[in-house]
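Input/output pair, single chain:
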Amino acid sequence: MDSSNTFMIEGIMAGDHYNDKNVYLTDPFTNEIFAETVVKDKKFTLHFPDNSLKIYKLVYKYSDKDMFPLTLPIVGGEGNVQVYMGGKVLTTGTPSNDAIQDFLLSNEKIVEEITTSGLSLEEVKTRFKDFLVDTVKNNKDNIVSVYVMKAYASRFTKDEISSLLTLIKSDIAMLY
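Output:
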C-alpha cells in the first residue's frame, strides 16, 4: 500500500536536543523497523505501513549507542495518531491509543504502589498479575488486551493465556 494512503503519526518531542535524531516505527516484539524519520523543529511524521489493526512501538534513540531509548507502544489501523515524547509520553487520536495510554499510566501507578508497599516478592507478583488480568478483561474489545498478553507473556501460563483469549472479542483474539 502506498504510504500516502495510510494513517500517520504526528509527533512532538519535548526539547531541542531531540532535533536531527531518528525516530523508528518498529514491531514491539521483533524490533523489525517499518519506518523511520528525522526529528526537525521538535516534530516528526511517520506513516503506518498499512491500515490494519496492529500494535507498533515508536523508538527514539539519542545516539546509536543509546542503551535506554524512549519507547512507546502505539496502535495503528484506526486513524491518525498524535504523540508527545519526552520525560513522559502521551498518545491520543484513536480509541485504542487512548486505551493504551490509560494502561501505561495505570501500569506506572501500580508498579510504584507495589514496589513501595512493603509486600513480599510473591505478593508483588500476585498483585501485578491481577492487575494484568484485570487490564485484559477491561480491554476485551480492543487490541490493548493482546498487547498486554504478549508484552507480559512470561507472567502467564499457557492455560491462563488460553483462558484469557476466550474472554476477548474474537476478531481481536485472532491478533494474538
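The beta strands are 8-13, 22-26, 33-38, 43-47, 54-60, 70-76, 81-85, 89-92. The chain has five helices and eight strands.
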